[in-house]
Design a protein that fits this description.
The complex is a heterodimer.
Chain A (H helix, E strand, L loop, with lengths): L1 H13 L1 H29 L6 H4 L2 H17 L1 H4 L2 H7 L4 H34 L8 H29 L4 H24 L10 H13 L1 H4 L8 H25 L4
Chain B lengths: L1 H13 L1 H18 L8 H4 L1 H9 L1 H15 L7 H7 L4 H30 L4 H28 L3 H29 L3 H12 L1 H9 L10 H20 L9
The chains are: A mainly alpha, B mainly alpha.
């Protein structure tokens, strides 16, 4: 188990996909910061608050984590690595769990890297946080990290379940996109800019469930629930993906 | 090239993803247009015609998946090399795929329109003009997808880039809505309107009638923009395509 986990972790940390993802995070945050800075200097002529640029990683987090885990984990199937592992005596459960842990590790590292860059930019080049206190900032980053880890695990689990078929190339990215679009409607209905929320009955419950317990939606807005809700959401999706993944992967025919 | 096109069409018509997509296009359009699920509120008030246009966005998602998965098969098992050995150029291979995807789109549009008519859509504006606008907009989108699919060989990367385009067009259109409504004025607004309609997603949103009036350039202009987008994408894809080295 641990030899396999070590090999997988090493593979992730040294892979080109991982390095490209880190670069994308850095370039995205810096480019976005420069753009907003120019708007503030020339158009609005006022000091920029750190909130404007601090948490923008959340906008691309779901796509980036899914794409990176797809790029890195899919190779297991396309170059026959997974078959070699099983031939050399690694149990299927161990191979699956180490891949999922690798996905979680990626999610955590991307979020932490984004946090470091965001902190540097906020401290050095902006007027500081206006509405967020330090515990709230830490809370926000903790939730982003948790959501990224869960999405990484979920996406890797999908790849292990559908690996070898064409579906695995699109399913994770499609889910990320569909939930992103759904979230826009859900947030608009739950917290309308004008007036009150008009939802009732099962629709209200369904919308609140999406807003409260689906980790993808934690990236769509600021944290507005208590920590146990976020823990239940992330833990729930993690347990579901590991359990279903283990059942399917243990019975799967590897081609 | 017509042989390649015919071969592609035969394979597409037997492709389970495409056949499933057409069935879904028919059933889902019928279900949403006739409101069989009994939605209430804003969706119910839209009426059958606008509901029909609203669900057509699923075709955008479908071709994001179908074009990369189908065309990338060229690069597996040496298919494209065999075609080149038998005398076809890479451009011919590209155009055969492009036109077969356009035909596939036309077939899917027919399923969608049939579902809409049975579901209760009656307005000629929706059935003819909106469908025509959407057809050309999706042609432009398919040409964009073909650029990624033809130029990138590794399927994982193709899939990532295809979804990146989908996400980018979604985000751009959402940002565009705010910019067009509150920030841009005068000539900048005219340019913004054209850029907004370069995205198939934007054209779909205009057709649904959910957007502000400032982003509506009229059906004819939309079609012209779509044709221009397709032409540019085809141009970018085919530059130096024949000289590309294949392993």
């Amino acid at each position: 188990m641990f030899r396999n986990l070590y090999a997988d972790t090493r593979n992730i940390l040294l892979s080109r996909g991982f390095h490209i993802a880190l670069r994308v995070i850095a370039i995205y945050q810096i480019f976005y910061f420069l753009l907003i800075k120019i708007v503030f200097i020339f158009a609005l002529k006022q000091t920029m608050a750190a909130e404007e640029v601090a948490f923008i990683f959340a906008n691309i987090a779901a796509f980036l984590v899914t794409a990176a885990t797809l790029y890195i984990s899919e190779r297991e199937f396309s170059n026959g690595c997974i078959r070699n592992k099983i031939i050399s005596g690694v149990r299927r459960t161990d191979a699956f769990l180490s891949a999922v842990i690798g996905g979680m590790l990626q999610g955590a590292l991307y979020a932490m890297f984004a946090c470091v860059i965001s902190t540097v930019i906020s401290v050095l080049f902006t007027g500081g946080y206006m509405t967020f206190s330090p515990p709230e900032i830490a809370d926000y980053w903790l939730i982003i990290t948790m959501a990224c880890m869960t999405i990484g695990a979920f996406s890797t689990s999908l790849i292990m379940i559908f690996g070898g078929s064409k579906i695995c190339y699109v399913i994770g990215l499609l889910i990320a996109f569909v939930i992103k679009v759904t979230n826009a409607f859900v947030l608009d209905a739950l917290y309308p800019t004008k007036g009150f929320c008009k939802l009732t009955g099962t629709k209200l419950m369904a919308y609140r469930f999406i807003d409260r317990f689906i980790p993808y939606s934690y990236l769509a807005s600021e944290p507005h629930y208590d920590m146990p809700s976020y823990l239940i959401g992330c833990g729930g999706l993690l347990i579901i993906s590991v359990v279903i993944g283990l059942i399917v992967f243990n019975k799967k025919e590897l081609s | 090239m017509s042989n390649l096109y015919k071969a592609n069409m035969r394979r597409i018509l037997k492709n389970s993803i495409f056949v499933g997509g057409c069935v879904i296009a028919f059933v889902v359009t019928l279900a949403f247009t006739a409101n069989l699920m009994g939605f209430t509120g804003r969706f119910e008030e839209m009426g059958p015609d606008r509901r029909m246009v609203f669900v057509s966005v699923a075709m955008l998602a479908f071709f994001t998946i179908f074009v990369p998965l189908y065309t990338n098969m060229e690069y597996r098992y040496g298919v494209i090399r065999n075609k080149i050995l038998s005398g076809y150029s890479q451009k011919e291979v590209y155009f055969s795929h492009l036109f077969s995807h356009f035909t596939a789109l036309a077939i899917m549009m027919l399923c969608y329109i049939t579902g809409g008519i049975i579901g209760g859509a009656r307005s000629p504006e929706t059935l003819v003009i909106s469908s025509l606008v959407l057809f050309f907009a999706l042609c432009g989108y398919i040409a964009t997808m073909m650029l990624v699919t033809m130029r990138i060989i590794k399927i994982t990367l193709v899939s990532i880039f295809a979804f990146l385009i989908l996400e980018t067009s979604y985000v751009s259109v959402m940002v565009g809505n705010a910019l067009m409504a509150f920030v841009l004025k005068g000539a900048a607004q005219d340019v913004g309107r054209i850029v907004y309609n370069c995205f198939a997603f934007g054209q779909w949103l205009v057709c649904t009638g959910l957007t502000d009036d400032v982003v509506k350039p009229g059906a004819f202009v939309q079609i012209v923009i779509s044709v221009a987008v397709s032409a540019v994408m085809i141009g970018i894809t085919t530059i130096g395509l024949n000289k590309r080295d294949l392993q």
